[in-house]
Design a protein that fits this description.
The chain contains no helices and eleven strands. With about 160 residues, it is mostly beta strands. The protein has two domains: about 10-65, no CATH class; about 80-155, no CATH class. Strands 7-6-11-10-9-8 form a six-stranded mixed β-sheet, with no helix packed on it. A three-stranded antiparallel β-sheet has the order 3-4-5, with no helix packed on it. The chain is globular.
Amino acid sequence: MRLPLAAAVKFTENGKQLQLDEGLWTNAGAVKFKQSLFDTQQCGTVTQAVVPAGSTDVPLALRLALEFRMFPMGGCNLSSDCKRMENGFTLACSVGATCADGDPSGSAVMKPRIILADVEAGLAAGFTMFQGRYSDVHMIKYSGGKVHGVHTILGKADSSGWD
């Protein structure tokens, strides 16, 4: 699944700016080793890894910086087998779903806090304040560019504790 990219996305390799489909990514194999730091305050990561490129193992350092953005009011690219649970209740995955660009508006606006993704596991998580009254944690299962499951836990809260 490809993540949405900022309009000003920048990719560099060895100090040179490249297109996203250039450089090591064109022939890199599966990661042999990795260690990562996750900075939820600055919303970014740094990873050191070893990846094979042909018959050579290449040490790699990767920095990923993310922009906070509002959650869409639902989700998009839903699979036909998508399952959704909210506080133990089953809902259709398509309830409130939209893929519209920009920030949502209306009574269901969410204030984003942390958005994480584990690409290898096919999982993403988001922590938000929903309507300013509920702490809201979404976990999303995806593969093949489609959302297959959404699990949400909402709890009454006046604050996320992160403000």
